């Protein structure tokens, strides 16, 4: 006997807002259902992520996710889907900022075509010099907010960017993401932690990804901290287009397809030498370009080695 299919009235659409120990919590706008995923997902490379729009069958005692709707994008670290915007949080002090990590994240976000707002937290602890450096490095190309999440100063400046968008808080651990979330959503209850004196790194306080609704519209992810962000898979020639400030000099280089590394007549290299492009951003670009080149050479060697076997 064939099992009776659920009626359309028993299938509802919602957003996964949390996933813990094999259970997924799906918000339909009026109800949050605790769901299991159908076994079919175990046999595919697709796994439900927080942020996914899904269709669920609520005809049984334990609702089941039966379909993952088409995704706008998906990230592995942090594991989220359908992100419209990232709020990348970096501390200006305790721990000290690492602009190279910020730049790697920006490259990945640009590759995924996701907007970014940069929030430099713990600004009250930082000297004026580092504040000016952060502003001069990123202020012309990305929305920038300086905050002191402990007192709440500056956090409200984030709200206009978050309205009616699905945004994800991201950044290394210990920079204040959970404290910012608690300021934005009073009942979020995100656990906060301190900085390890031994490593000068934050202790991971967020254990899982969760999606919260914001008053006035919009949703925001809380994601675990991470210490690195892998460059996405791409060709070297793609990288120049992922650094926004380079776009001002498009078409001005002597050679078409210029990689802005050691080519003569390079407008980007000249702009960096003249200080029109921040030195740290250009150095980050060169490091990323080198990494992509090394990765490509390894892949070519691997393919050649397999052919010769």
Short précis:
This protein is 23% helix and 21% strand. The protein is an alpha/beta fold and 309 residues long.
Structural class by sheet pairing and helices? alpha/beta
What are the segments in which pLDDT stays under 50 over at least 5 consecutive residues? Answer: 192-206
Strand order of the largest sheet: 10-9-8-11-13-12
Helical coverage, percent range: 10-25%
Mean pLDDT across the residues is: 87
Key descriptive features of the protein:
309 residues; alpha/beta; six-stranded mixed β-sheet; five-stranded mixed beta barrel
Layout of helices and strands, plus pairs?
Layout: E1 11-20, E2 23-27, E3 32-37, E4 53-57, E5 64-68, E6 74-75, E7 80-81, E8 85-91, H1 99-111, E9 115-121, H2 128-138, E10 144-146, H3 159-162, E11 166-170, H4 177-184, E12 210-213, E13 219-222, H5 267-273, H6 279-307
Parallel strand pairs: 3-5, 8-9, 8-11, 9-10, 11-13
Antiparallel strand pairs: 1-2, 1-4, 2-3, 4-5, 6-7, 12-13
Helix pairs in contact: 1-6
């Amino acid at each position: 006997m064939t099992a009776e299919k659920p009626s359309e009235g028993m299938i509802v659409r919602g957003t996964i807002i949390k996933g813990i120990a094999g259970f997924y919590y799906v918000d339909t706008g009026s109800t949050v259902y605790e769901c299991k995923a159908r076994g079919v997902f175990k046999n595919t490379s697709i796994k439900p992520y927080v942020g996914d729009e899904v269709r669920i069958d609520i005809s049984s005692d334990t609702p089941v996710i039966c379909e993952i709707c088409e995704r706008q994008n998906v990230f592995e670290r942090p594991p989220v889907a359908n992100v419209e915007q990232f709020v990348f949080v970096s501390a200006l002090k305790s721990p000290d900022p690492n602009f190279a990590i910020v730049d790697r994240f920006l490259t990945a976000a640009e590759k995924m075509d996701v907007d970014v707002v940069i929030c430099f937290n713990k600004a009250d602890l930082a000297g004026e010099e580092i504040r000016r450096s952060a502003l001069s490095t990123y202020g012309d190309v990305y929305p920038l907010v300086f905050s002191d999440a402990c007192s709440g100063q500056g956090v409200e400046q984030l709200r206009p960017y978050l309205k009616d968008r699905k945004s994800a808080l991201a950044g290394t651990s210990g920079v204040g993401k959970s404290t910012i979330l608690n300021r934005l959503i009073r009942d979020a209850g995100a656990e906060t932690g301190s900085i390890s004196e031994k490593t000068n790194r934050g202790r991971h306080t967020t254990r899982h990804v969760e999606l919260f609704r914001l008053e006035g519209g919009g949703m925001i992810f809380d994601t675990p901290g991470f210490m690195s962000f892998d460059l996405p898979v791409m060709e070297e020639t793609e990288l120049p287009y992922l650094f926004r400030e380079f776009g001002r000099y498009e078409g001005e280089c002597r050679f078409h397809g210029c990689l802005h590394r050691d080519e003569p007549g390079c407008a980007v290299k000249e702009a960096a030498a003249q200080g029109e492009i921040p030195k740290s951003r250009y150095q980050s670009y060169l490091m990323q370009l080198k990494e992509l080149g090394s990765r490509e050479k390894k892949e070519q060697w691997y393919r050649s080695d397999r052919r010769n076997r």
